[in-house]
Amino acid sequence: MNVLFFKYAIEIERTRSITKAAENLYMAQPNLSKAIKEMEDTIGFAIFERNSRGVVPTPKGFRFLSHARKILEEMEQIKKLTDAENPERQAFSISIPRGSYIAAGFTKFAMELDTEKEININIQETNSLRTMNNVIDSSFNLGIIRYQTIYENYYFDYLADKHLDHDQVWEFEYLALMSKKHPLAMDDEVPFSKLKSYIELLHGDTVVPYLNVAELRAPSQDAFPKKRIYLYERCNQFELLTSLPVTYMWVSPIPDKMLERYDLIQRKCAFLNNRYKDVLIYRKGYPFTVLDKKFIDKVFESRNEVSLKQYT
């Protein structure tokens, strides 16, 4: 049996959709359906069934997927042994939020790689639920998740349920990021009510475990009508903020170099539940590599450079 099919099945379980899983796996939906059917014919029972919640595992399928995860995890451990025995290979993988100080830490980390040796680095910016599932299915060794502290129990319950460990990286308040040409740029602290006339940029794939979209409470959810542009790539936000000075965005504190590069400023703004955390996650028992530790050090270094300023 092709173990690649295990990853296919786990992605379907995660998304509860063959179509969405195929998109995430960068393959055609008919090919994915064919692969699952071939695997079901081989093992002699159905792995999935359709119900009101979408495509979900059958009772036997649930047990099959549990074993499939363990097999993939063991294969990942074997791969680590191979990497450890090859001093010429630099391998590292992490899934992160769209946070500029974390990206700055990664740049510091990448700059210290030995360019004379083999490099295999895999980094993905995405939402917290996708990051957790990336670590669960061993697609990535490490992850950093971001959440409002009011939802911490939901995240900790999910992490415990999925056998993931965690360490806090930073707790902070969101700041309003905007162009120096923004009409509110001269205010040292921007009143929340003043933002209603301007266009908010926000990431459109925020998800909290065990909650639906209607139950989420974000800084932008208030009584007045909103003007919004939803983004899915961090680089787009800087271009829009610079080119369209009537936009703003809620962000974690950003390093000065990035602000200067795009001619941006960040301003404090008081609103309810404005406390966020970035948390490092990893599978229980995961052995940190030298590169893992180096990356973590660089992220903390980048965090400290920002937090030593006024944004604490």
Structural commentary:
- The chain has 312 residues and is of the alpha/beta class.
- The protein folds into 3 domains: 4-75, Arc Repressor Mutant, subunit A (Orthogonal Bundle); 81-171 and 277-307, Periplasmic binding protein-like II (D-Maltodextrin-Binding Protein, domain 2, 3-Layer(aba) Sandwich), CATH 3.40.190.10; 175-274, D-Maltodextrin-Binding Protein, domain 2 (3-Layer(aba) Sandwich), CATH 3.40.190.10.
- It is built from 10 helices and 12 strands.
- The longest helix is centred in the N-terminal third of the chain and has 26 residues, at 59-84.
- The N and C termini lie far apart (52 Å).
- The model has no long low-confidence stretch (mean pLDDT 87).
Identify the overall geometry: globular
> What is the N-to-C succession of helices and strands?
HHHEEHEHEHEHEEEEHEHEEH
Number of helices: 10
How many strand segments? 12
The main sheet comes to:
5 strands, mixed
Q: What proportion of the residues is helical, as a percent range?
A: 40-55%
Classify the secondary structure makeup into a structural class.
Answer: alpha/beta
* Cα-to-Cα separation, first versus last residue: 52 Å
The order of strands across the largest sheet is 4-3-5-12-6
Percent of residues in β-strands: 15-25%
Based on CA atoms alone, the radius of gyration comes out at 21 Å
Q: For this structure, what is the CATH class of the largest domain?
A: Alpha Beta
Low-pLDDT residue intervals, each spanning 5 or more residues: none
CATH superfamily of the largest domain: Periplasmic binding protein-like II
Reported by name, the CATH topology of the largest domain is: D-Maltodextrin-Binding Protein, domain 2
